[in-house]
Specification:
The protein is an alpha/beta fold. It contains nine helices and eight strands. Bound molecules: 2'-deoxycytidine-5'-monophosphate.
């Protein structure tokens, strides 16, 4: 008997603002595959911990929160991201704030939290395939993925993209402060000892500075068709 073929995975790792979120949503839709937004799990852990009054240095309690996350991802209307439901409350907007992202980045340095989320992430790998968005998808969570992409863009371009997104959403922000935050988060994500943000050895690095989303999508689809 031959072993069952593993469910294919495309991993897309990279820093915040590199366009991973949009590209992975489009990829999953185009291929008809499942989508894992692993950053949402770190954001949800941070939000749930904050609501329970757990200190961000209480590693054991944070890991317990991560292990017991009561979360559902409900498909959104066509063209819109999934609704994220935590303990029966729609927290889709609450997990997207800058503060929640910053808190997520802080708890993501904790190995116990990363371990607690590992199996939950692997459980997303279901037929016909998975597109996985994160920081360590290709290096730690799905090291056997046949297609691995590391998507990057200059910090300035990422700050500009985030600025436009927030402006459009009616949020008043300062671009210099955004750029500082992006650099601080990059620094924390890249220099942590536990699963630091870096391309897997077999990842294709795509610099999206100056590229449209469609161009990035086309490059990844080309990699997928050669896999
Ligand atoms: O992709 P994002 O901005 O939603 O992620 C929020 C934070 O979570 C990010 O600063 C680092 C952390 N993260 C991580 O450490 N590993 C992942 N696979 C995904 C996110």
């Amino acid at each position: 008997m031959t072993a069952a073929k593993p469910v294919p995975v495309i991993t897309v790792d990279g820093p915040s603002g590199s366009g991973k979120g949009t590209v992975t949503q489009l990829l999953a839709r185009q291929l008809g595959w499942h989508l894992l937004d692993s950053g949402a799990l770190y954001r949800l852990t941070a939000l749930a911990a904050e609501r329970k009054g757990i200190a961000f240095d209480d590693e054991g309690a944070l890991a317990t929160v991560a292990r017991n996350l009561d979360v559902r991802f409900e498909p959104g209307p066509a063209g819109e991201p999934a609704r994220v439901v935590l303990e029966n409350e729609d927290v889709s907007a609450a997990i997207r704030t800058e503060t929640c992202g910053d808190n997520a980045s802080r708890i993501a340095v904790i190995q116990l939290v990363r371990d607690a989320l590992l199996q939950l992430q692997r459980d997303f790998r279901k037929a016909p395939g998975l597109v996985a968005d994160g920081r360590d998808m290709g290096t730690v969570v799905f090291p056997d993925a046949p297609v691995k992409v590391f998507l990057t863009a200059s910090a300035e371009e990422r700050a500009q993209r985030r600025y436009s997104q927030l402006k459009q959403a009616g949020v008043d922000v300062n671009i210099t402060a955004l750029l500082d935050e992006i650099r601080a988060r990059d620094d924390r994500d890249m220099n942590r000892t536990s699963a630091p943000l870096k391309p897997a050895e077999d990842a294709q690095v795509i610099d999206s500075t100056g590229l449209s989303i469609e161009e990035v999508l086309g490059r990844i689809m080309a990699l997928q068709s050669q896999a």
